Amino acid sequence: MRWLLSLVTNLSYPCLMLGLFFFAASLTPSLIPRGPLVQGVLGGIVIALGYLLGQIIWLIWRAADFPALKGRAALVFNLLLAAAALGLTVWTIAFSLEWQNALRVKMDLQPVETQHLLVILVAAVAVFAVLYLLGALVAMLFKWIRSRFYRFMPPRRANVLGVVAVVFILFVVTRDGILDFVVTGLDESYETAQKLFDDAPPRPDKATQAGSEASLIDWAAMGQPGRDFVMSGPDAADISRFTGKPALDPIRVYVGRADGETPQERAELALAELKRLKAFERKILIVTSPTGTGWMDPGSHDPVEYMHNGDIATVSAQYSYLQSPLALILETRTGLDQATALLEVVHRYWKTLPEDSRPKLYAHGLSLGAWSSMYATNLFRLVDDPINGAFWAGPPFPSDLWNYVQNARQPGSPWVLPTIEKGSLVRYASHYADASKAEADWGRMRIVFLQYSSDPIVFYDPLSVWRAPPWMNDPPAEDVSEHLTFMPVVTQFQLALDMALSFGAPPGHGHAYFAQDYIAPWVQVTAPEGWTQADTERLKAHCDLGFQNGCSNK
Questions:
Q1: Do the beta carbons of residue 520 and residue 435 sit within 8 Å?
Q2: 483: how many CB neighbours lie within 10 A of its CB?
Q3: N or C: which end of the chain has fewer CB within 10 A?
């Protein structure tokens, strides 16, 4: 009890006030609306960060032997600092509900009547208390190690080696903790994968479907995401009911990770299955890269099959069982290698076919799939007998090709929806733009990026620790709060939290891409024959079930 009391009495109130400044800043809006508990957790974290930053500044100040305020001057300074911090906190609390509701309205969410101030404050205090306690334990560890070093070395050397020892210990503990988490995640993924294989439903009856008795692909090894993709989507009858004319059954080929030992083996198997199904006799061929788990978004693939009357084939190969964040960290190379092998194998064969009779070839991917697909679509495939185009949705911020194109935007065009040259090669779409407007007509190749202006997976910036992301220098987009303001450190944590919340955003915002917003970009990229704006609107109405169900009743 005495130890806990000493922790309270030893609190540095100037550092705590700096933490309160950070807390007040965290109440301002970011890209995704936040609930009271989430806001409280964020607030507690940034209070602790502000406190830690104050402690570091104070240690540097003392090490530099600068003068310190004492007596009445120190008291006046502390009072003024407390008044400023508390005043700013009260002001931001008073307006936080208005800011959050304004953002919710922009995303077609119902405003909340109360921000549950008590929940925010209790959560913030609890999180800060836990972090402060952890910091105190680290400080005690440092003092204990330093006292041992004092026995046989000078104090200055003991201080330095004490810090080094504590950092090393924390690194080992953190590393083991992260590895334990990863191993647990891998175990769960492995268990999930086993269920996929052991509990496979009956294979398709039609020989014209991947995974059937006649197929070269093992149905049980395909995995649940692949089986869902192959068995879902519109068939010829569904498409005919929509178009009013005869249609074909779309071809869908999916190779599970367990269907081959290496990316190259899986790619060759996919090519063989495409040949078996006569996919190269279709008008359109799409090579797509799935997300980390192997999931294929029906909201993207269903519409393009309707607009081409089923005369289309789509092929994909799984590279991981992990959720996308884990796949990005642990299997980055695997995803890039698989996407490259598949596109390379398909493109190499496609080049051998007569140009006037082969299908138009496109690359596609969503999120982590967009990243790997962009990596696979290298310069050689854009110059040597190039593909016809690409459509990438929700490209993650580390994507090299995306960053290169973004930085080539015309001066004055917004970062979230840039203009690239005259728009004959690359265009952008969003929830509010369909990539149809440009100075020039489309050239031989068509590339479209679909990115929501409120998607932190796309617009997160690691450098926002100390500088504003480029998009914050532009006027706010339609679904971005006009009260969003850059604040060093705080903005970084707000955007990091936004990334975790972005998958649960309403369709059309955050990272929740859905069918209605895929349709117009697919029209621009693939130019379906005889297609009109009225057809686009009719297909949007048909796909009104949303991004979870795509555009079919299956």
A1: yes
A2: 16
A3: N
Domain layout of the chain by residue ranges: 2-172, 200-452+513-542
Rounded (to 5) percent helix, strand, coil in the chain: 55, 5, 35
Take residue 81 and report the two structure tokens written for it.
Answer: 């600092």
Tokens describing residue 435: 């990539």
Do 307 and 215 meet the contact criterion of CB atoms below 8 Å apart? no
> What is the tens place of the pLDDT at every residue in 280-308?
999 999 999 999 788 999 999 999 999 99
pLDDT category at 136 given cuts 50, 70, 90 is confident
Q: What pLDDT, on the 0 to 100 scale, is given for residue 84?
A: 87
Going along 267-424, which residue ranges are E strands?
284-289, 312-317, 360-366, 389-393
DSSP string computed for 454-470: T-HHHH--GGGGTS--G
pLDDT tens-digit series, residues 79-103: 888 888 888 888 888 888 888 888 8
Tell me how crowded residue 436 is: count the other CB atoms within 10 A of its CB.
Answer: 14
Contacts of 414 (CB under 8 A, 6+ apart): 471, 474, 475, 477
d(CA 484, CA 491): 9
169-178: Cβ within 8 A, 24+ apart: 169/141, 170/138
**What is d(CA 417, CA 409) in angstroms, rounded to the nearest whole number?**
9
Q: Are 109 and 508 in contact (CB under 8 A)?
A: no
| Whole-number Å distance between alpha carbons of 459 and 461 | 6
Cα–Cα distance between 420 and 146 in angstroms, integer?
58
Strands (DSSP E) contained in 206-354 are 251-255, 284-289, 312-317
Indicate whether 224 pLDDT > 70: yes
Confidence of residue 36 (pLDDT cuts 50, 70, 90): confident
Contacts with 17 (C-beta within 8 Å, 6 or more apart), sequence order: 78, 81, 82, 84, 85
The answer to whether the beta carbons of residues 306 and 284 sit under 8 Å apart is: no
Selection from 209, 304, 203 nearest residue 249 by Cα? 209
Cα–Cα distance, 468 to 487 (Å, whole number): 8
* Dist. CA 368–CA 516, nearest whole Å: 21
Whole-number average pLDDT of the chain: 87
3-class secondary structure, 389 = strand
315 close to 349: Cβ distance less than 8 angstroms: no
Smallest Cα–Cα separation from 495: which of 462, 452, 449, 471?
Answer: 462
pLDDT at 547: 40
Question: What's the one-letter identity of residue 145?
Answer: I
DSSP for 28-82, please give it: S--SS---HHHHHHHHHHHHHHHHHHHHHHHHHHHHTT-----HHHHHHHHHHHH
